[in-house]
């Protein structure tokens, strides 16, 4: 495996050339020149990362537009502020989505591998778009809750399939930037969804429908259109890339598989076996990665569901201003997300990036919750939004770098995203109606999640450091399986 010291590459033409950064050209026999290799990688970036990012943005918009519709009149019309026990109907509607979202993730990755990501992702995107349109015509909160349950069924398979698909195309030190761009496109555009929702609200009265109903209807139709586009442009796994329309040929696909194989030795698909799939659950590190994403998504979903409400009730902004003021915070988050992803790949470090993001949140949460000036508290929103959202691709990269094997990777995608969904349930309950307008208990819960993430990363980093030292001394073989081994694998701290 290449190191930072590699400076030349030998091609079949016999030439010796200076190489670009080592993430592209390790030292090996290759029929493509370094420039040709970069072009192939960039072609994959444009076709895969951007397409998935666009589809993910509509996914985030569709699961998060509940908050914008809520302050646009849905809460009054469907009586969502009424308490059922100690929980508001709005919180019930929010969290029911995540029950099916979590349960149906279990078969998602094997299904994506079996059916192929193009067909699989297109079908579920179009299906949840149809559900979104239906939400624009509900007449009571129970029907809305039922449709949210169905929405969870269809959305369940999308994110783990994306995480798994991206991990099969890139080497360990290429994937950080790609995860960041994928999530950055989604989170930034979804952050601008409040502005779009404000515009759609102005359709109030058209067709005798309320403005909040048009938010669901128009965004649902847009989802269906993008689902069809996803089928046309999304690509399959690397071993079948040459079958995708107007994409790589067999030689180029083999180049992608060879570079991934040299990096971690698991590019070739293995036959599915339930034992191999479930055996990954015996590794405690898998659950550490999942807990990092759980704590991170508790923050991101609490912001997605309640930030517009907090801006109105706590910071005293108008409804229109609250919907529009969400966007700048997500734009700032996109910048932080890409910069930290770039640094993470360049310096081959993962854990410190997660800790940095959590420190941003730990600075921003007290400012957002306790400062006296609304303008200063709004500045705190920027820090929290940036740190929480940047941590999602950082957690995905941390996990992807430190596992090997096709089916362990598939199992980890399911557990990672599943715990992310559980974080969505927690995020739905963090800011309770009875705690308004200060929402102090929700702030304390978010601070606890940040601190717990820092503890987990430190514990895993210490474990990785000791295990790498043992491997350097030849005492252990890291991430070894009976079917697959790769001498030289080391954990990324």
From TrEMBL:
It comes from the Eukaryota. It comes from Periconia macrospinosa. GO terms for cellular component: membrane. It is found in: Membrane. The lineage of its organism: Eukaryota, Fungi, Dikarya, Ascomycota, Pezizomycotina. Keywords: Membrane, Transmembrane, Transmembrane helix, Transport. The keyword Membrane applies. GO terms for molecular function: transmembrane transporter activity. This is Phthalate transporter-like protein. Residues 48-471 form the Major facilitator superfamily (MFS) profile domain. It is a multi-pass membrane protein. Residues 1-28 are annotated as: Disordered. SUPFAM superfamilies: MFS general substrate transporter. Its main location: membrane. The chain crosses the membrane at residues 48-67, 87-107, 119-139, 145-167, 179-200, 212-234, 286-311, 317-341, 353-372, 378-398, 410-430, 442-466. Signal peptide: none annotated. Gene3D superfamilies: MFS general substrate transporter like domains.
